[in-house]
């Protein structure tokens, strides 16, 4: 048995790391120091989970909760030795980050230069890495959907040419993120062969998984429409997760939903699904999409042109 929740294996490792950085021992510290360390441990755990779930510090809603948690950790960490060590650790991290960014820029420059020489051929930027290694492949163009707006990135397999009459390297991709510019980071494991800079890439998306994500993406739109129909148009989406096996839909409303409202929402969505209503997607300037009734997520970043899904069900 432990004396309190802070000393369980969920929070104690964070407290011990904070103690190490502050050059103190949690076990023999006075009550005030222990209190500071408990605040840091508890709040840092919450901050990591919130940010990992897509909640970014802001002045409204959940974002404001994250901001307040971060600021309290910073304020609490002003206990002299903790603050001093955190500053030293921050400096060490910044120096490491700067070295890594410089190396990344060099690799990207090589990749983009190679892509330009090959014209439209997607180009790989990575150090030479062999089978079984985890790898991040940087491509200047890709058929893979990069994680955005709560929808996870595609899975699939880039096939990398190793030369004439040579077998291709195969990488299993499990995550795709968009980096700065038009660079896409594909994270995965090398299943076969060797990966190195400048090779041509043939990228194949896992179509079955993408279709599952598309189904859940459409379901979030149906859920939002049903919510507005049942409880009123003042409700608004506050975030979502669109995965291959599930979805999560966050929304703002001044009270919990009633049981009969949940039943009505479920019945409406099931009716729309059974009707097999045709969805149409158009690409148009964002201003035109809004004039036609598109609902934009507050805080979400959009390009000059957006994909606009049109449906014909009655809301």
Automatic annotation (TrEMBL):
Belongs to the class-II aminoacyl-tRNA synthetase family. It comes from the Eukaryota. The keyword DNA repair does not apply. PANTHER family: ALANINE--TRNA LIGASE, CYTOPLASMIC, ALANYL-TRNA SYNTHETASE. It comes from Vicia faba. Residues 1-315 form the Alanyl-transfer RNA synthetases family profile domain. It is an enzyme of class 6 (ligase). Gene3D superfamilies: 2.40.30.130, 3.30.54.20, Threonyl-trna Synthetase, Chain A, domain 2. Keywords: Aminoacyl-tRNA synthetase, ATP-binding, Ligase, Nucleotide-binding, Protein biosynthesis, RNA-binding, tRNA-binding. This is alanine--tRNA ligase. PROSITE patterns: AA_TRNA_LIGASE_II_ALA. GO terms for molecular function: alanine-tRNA ligase activity; aminoacyl-tRNA deacylase activity; ATP binding; tRNA binding. GO terms for biological process: alanyl-tRNA aminoacylation. Its EC number is 6.1.1.7. GO terms for cellular component: cytosol. InterPro entries: Ala-tRNA-lgiase_IIc, Ala-tRNA-ligase_IIc_anticod-bd, Ala-tRNA-synth_IIc_core, Ala-tRNA-synth_IIc_N, Ala-tRNA_ligase, Thr/Ala-tRNA-synth_IIc_edit, Transl_B-barrel_sf.
């Amino acid at each position: 048995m432990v004396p309190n929740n802070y000393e369980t294996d969920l929070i104690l490792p964070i407290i011990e790391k904070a103690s190490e950085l502050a050059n103190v021992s949690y076990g023999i510290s006075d009550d005030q120091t222990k209190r500071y360390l408990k605040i840091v441990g508890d709040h840092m755990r919450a901050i990591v989970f919130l940010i990992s779930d897509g909640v970014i510090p802001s002045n409204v809603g959940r974002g404001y909760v994250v901001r307040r948690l971060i600021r309290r950790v910073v304020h609490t960490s002003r206990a002299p030795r903790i603050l001093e060590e955190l500053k030293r650790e921050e400096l060490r991290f910044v120096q490491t980050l700067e070295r890594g960014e410089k190396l990344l820029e060099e690799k990207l420059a090589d990749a983009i230069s190679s892509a330009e020489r090959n014209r439209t051929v997607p180009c790989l930027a990575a150090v030479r890495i062999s089978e079984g290694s985890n790898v991040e492949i940087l491509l200047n163009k890709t058929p893979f959907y990069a994680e955005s707006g709560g929808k996870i990135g595609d899975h699939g397999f880039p096939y990398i040419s190793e030369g004439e009459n040579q077998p291709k390297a195969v990488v299993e991709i499990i995550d795709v993120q968009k980096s700065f510019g038009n660079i896409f980071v594909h994270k995965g494991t090398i299943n076969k062969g060797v990966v190195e800079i400048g090779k041509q890439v043939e990228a194949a998306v896992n179509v079955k998984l993408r279709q599952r994500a598309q189904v859940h993406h459409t379901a979030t739109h149906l859920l939002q429409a049903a919510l507005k129909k049942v409880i009123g148009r003042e409700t608004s989406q506050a975030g979502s997760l669109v995965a291959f096996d599930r979805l999560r839909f966050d929304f703002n409303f001044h009270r919990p939903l009633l049981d009969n409202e949940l039943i009505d929402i479920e019945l409406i969505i099931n009716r729309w699904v059974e009707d097999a209503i045709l969805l149409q997607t158009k690409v148009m300037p964002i201003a035109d999409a809004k004039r036609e009734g598109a609902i934009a997520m507050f805080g979400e970043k959009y390009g000059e042109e957006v994909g606009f899904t049109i449906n014909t069900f009655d809301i």
